[in-house]
Amino acid sequence: MDACRKKLQQGLIDLPLDIGESGLEDLLSFINLIVKWNKAYNLTAVRDPEEMVSLHILDSLSILPHIKLPRVADIGTGAGLPGIPLAICMPDCHFVLVDSNSKKTRFVKQAVLELKLKNVEVVHSRVELLKAEPLFSTVITRAFAEMAVILKLTGHLLDEEGWLLAMKGQQPNQELEEIEADYSVIPLTVPGIDAERCLIQLKRHKNG
User: Fold this and answer.
1) What pLDDT is recorded for position 47?
2) What are φ and ψ of residue 91, in 5° steps?
3) Which residues pair with 33 in a beta bridge?
4) Successive 10-residue mean pLDDT values, the chain, 208 residues
5) Which residues of 4-18 are buried (b: 16+ CB within 10 A; e: fewer)?
């Protein structure tokens, strides 16, 4: 894991993000858990731990400056991305990680247990059936769905001042044309990734 450690250390400097030695160790432990469970649970198509550093960990942490505390929902968390890396680096923020795939939520629960994350709750549910009390200050999606679908499914989860953050690759112009909501497009720079990344930020959207 020496190569992973060096790549992660440099990536955190480039972001820039100072999370201390314990945070660094937790992120590396999380990568190890994904590698271990991936063989049986098929959590991610990325198999190389070094690639996971950029494609999963640093990609997740690139949105950290845009998170609004104190309650965050990660919808369609999959293998716990971006929720677990963010929770490791934001211990004062409460995270609820949601996915409808029971195998993946089983892994995420185990990762939370092994990493001793006190600020993470894992929920096996479809997002439209999710009840939130209190509501969330931030709702995050990553490679989840088109913007119109995201708005429809998550609108009931945000509090009055809440933000929806949709992580995307290239700016989804056609998707944005199909929604009626005020939004901002925030370019993201992820160390080790040349491909385009952006964050779509929207204020609370009420359905109907």
Assistant:
1) 94
2) -65, -20
3) none
4) 94 96 97 95 93 97 97 97 98 98 97 98 97 95 93 94 96 94 95 95 66
5) beebbeebbeebeee
